[in-house]
Design goal:
The complex is a heterodimer of chains A (167) and B (217).
Chain A: H1 9-30, E1 56-63, H2 69-78, E2 84-88, E3 94-96, E4 105-111, E5 117-120, E6 131-136, E7 140-145, H3 148-154, E8 156-161
Antiparallel strand pairs in A: 1-2, 1-8, 2-3, 3-4, 4-5, 5-6, 6-7, 7-8
Chain B: H1 16-21, E1 72-75, E2 85-88, E3 93-99, E4 102-107, E5 110-111, E6 119-128, H2 136-141, E7 160-164, E8 170-172, E9 183-185, E10 189-190, H3 193-202, E11 208-212
Parallel strand pairs in B: 2-11, 5-9, 8-10
Antiparallel strand pairs in B: 1-4, 2-3, 3-4, 6-7, 6-11, 7-8
The chains are: A alpha+beta (167), B alpha/beta (217).
C-alpha cells in the first residue's frame, strides 16, 4: 500500500474500517485453522558463539568485493586508533548499533536455520535489522547485513580485536 | 561569463593550514602538502566532509543530464594547452581544454565558504573507486560506520579520483550527484560519477590543473 494512502484522513478511516473487517474475519476463521502455532519466522536457537566474545575494542572496516577482503582486514587492524567499543548490555546482550541508527541498543547472538548465527535484537533470527555472522574467532569476526539494501550500501564488515586483552 | 580569469593567484586563499587545522573534516589526501607544511597526521588521511552520506549508492552511469551543469562542449578562450584542466570555483565549472577555443565543460561541486582555494597543481595519481576513511567527526555522529570503506558504489568519493599534487585535495566522483553546482565540500571538486569517469578517461597523470577562484564582495 503506498505511503500516500496513509496521508489522507479519509483513507485512514477506510483503513481502519478495512482493518476491522479483516481482524473480525481472522478471528472467525482462526477457530478452524489447521496448524495452530505455525509461523513463517524461525525460532532462535542457541548461537554457535558466546555473546560475550563480542565485548571489547575493535578496529572496523568494510568491503564489497572479495578482492578487497585481505587489505580490508589489514585496514581494520589499522583502525584501532578509533576503535568501535562493544560493552556488556544490561541483561545478557551487548551494546552495539544497528545500521543507520546512532543510538546503541542491546543486541545478542541468535542461532538460526542452517547453523547460521545472527547478531541483532532479541527475537527471530534473520530479521531485516540483523547481521549474519559469517565467521568468528576470539580476535576477529565478519558480518554482513541481512537486508540486501543495507548490505549493498555498507558491504561486509570485518572486526579485528584491538590488542589482546578483552575488556 | 568567465569572470574568474583575472583573479588567478598561485597560492591558496584558504591555505592547507586551514585544512590541517580542521584535521579530518577536510576531504584530504596527504601527499607532500606543499601548501600545508603544518598539516597534521589526521589531514593526511583520505577523509571527507561531515555532510557526506556514506552508504548512499550512485553508480558510474550517473551523469548530469540537464541544465548548465550538464557535460557539454563550449566556446572557451584560453592560452593554456589542450589537455589542461581549468576549474572556476565561483561558476561551479571544470573545463577540459580541447584547443581551438573549445573546451569540455563539467558541472562540479566545490568547497563551501572558507574552503575555496586557487592555485596551479598537477594530477599526480589516479584511482578507480577509491577507498574512503570517514573523519572522526563523522564517526562521532554516525558511530555505526566502518572506520574504513573500500571503494565502491556507496563510497562518498565515488567512481574515480584524481589526486592533486602538493595539496590535500582531489577531483573525485560522488554518491550525492544532487550536490553538483553547490558549495558543500571541504575544498575538493566533485563530479557526478558518470562525468568523473569521462574526465578520468581524458586526463592523465601529469595533467596541469589551474584552479581559479574569484573573490566575491
Amino acid at each position: 500500500m503506498p505511503p500516500s494512502f496513509f496521508s489522507s484522513p479519509r483513507n485512514t478511516i477506510k483503513l481502519h474500517a478495512g482493518t476491522f473487517v479483516l481482524l473480525a474475519l481472522a478471528v472467525t476463521l482462526s477457530g478452524c485453522a489447521g496448524t495452530p502455532g505455525e509461523t513463517a519466522l524461525p525460532r532462535a536457537t542457541p548461537a554457535a558463539y558466546p555473546v560475550d566474545r563480542l565485548i571489547g575494542k575493535w578496529g572496523v572496516a568494510s568491503y564489497r568485493q572479495d578482492k578487497d577482503k585481505a587489505r580490508t582486514e589489514a585496514q581494520a587492524r589499522a583502525q584501532c586508533k578509533l576503535p568501535y567499543v562493544i560493552s556488556k548490555g544490561p541483561t545478557d546482550g551487548v551494546m552495539m548499533h544497528v545500521a543507520d541508527d546512532p543510538t546503541p541498543h542491546e543486541l545478542t547472538l541468535k542461532g538460526g536455520p542452517g547453523g547460521k548465527t545472527y547478531l541483532g535484537f532479541e527475537g527471530p533470527p534473520g530479521d531485516e535489522q540483523d547481521r549474519e555472522i559469517l565467521s568468528m574467532s576470539d580476535n576477529m569476526f565478519v558480518t554482513r547485513f541481512v537486508s540486501p539494501e543495507t548490505n549493498t550500501r555498507y558491504g561486509t564488515f570485518i572486526y579485528v580485536r584491538c590488542g589482546t586483552a578483552r575488556s | 561569463m568567465f569572470s574568474g580569469f583575472s583573479s588567478l593567484s598561485l597560492g591558496v586563499l584558504r591555505s592547507g593550514a586551514m585544512c590541517a587545522c580542521l584535521g579530518a573534516v577536510v576531504c584530504c589526501l596527504g601527499s607532500a602538502p606543499a601548501f600545508s607544511q603544518a598539516a597534521s597526521e589526521s589531514a593526511m588521511r583520505e577523509t571527507l566532509d561531515i555532510g557526506d552520506e556514506p552508504g548512499r549508492v550512485s553508480t558510474e552511469e550517473v551523469v548530469i543530464t540537464d541544465g548548465p551543469y550538464r557535460r557539454q562542449l563550449v566556446f572557451f578562450r584560453t592560452t593554456d594547452a589542450p589537455g589542461t584542466i581549468e576549474i572556476h570555483t565561483a561558476e561551479r565549472f571544470l573545463y577540459l581544454v580541447l584547443g581551438n577555443n573549445r573546451a569540455l565543460r563539467y558541472g562540479i561541486g566545490v568547497g563551501r565558504e572558507g574552503f575555496q582555494w586557487s592555485g596551479l597543481v598537477t594530477v599526480v595519481r589516479k584511482a578507480e573507486w577509491p577507498d574512503w576513511t570517514p573523519p572522526p567527526e563523522m564517526i562521532a555522529r554516525q558511530p555505526y560506520l566502518p572506520r574504513f570503506m573500500a571503494g565502491g558504489p556507496g563510497n562518498p568519493l565515488g567512481a574515480r579520483a584524481m589526486y592533486l599534487g602538493g595539496t590535500v585535495y582531489r577531483i573525485h566522483g560522488t554518491n550525492q550527484p544532487e550536490t553538483i553546482g553547490q558549495s558543500v565540500s571541504s575544498g575538493c571538486f566533485r563530479l557526478a560519477n558518470g562525468d568523473v569517469v569521462d574526465l578520468y578517461s581524458r586526463a592523465n597523470v601529469g595533467t596541469k590543473v589551474i584552479v581559479r577562484h574569484a573573490a566575491t564582495l
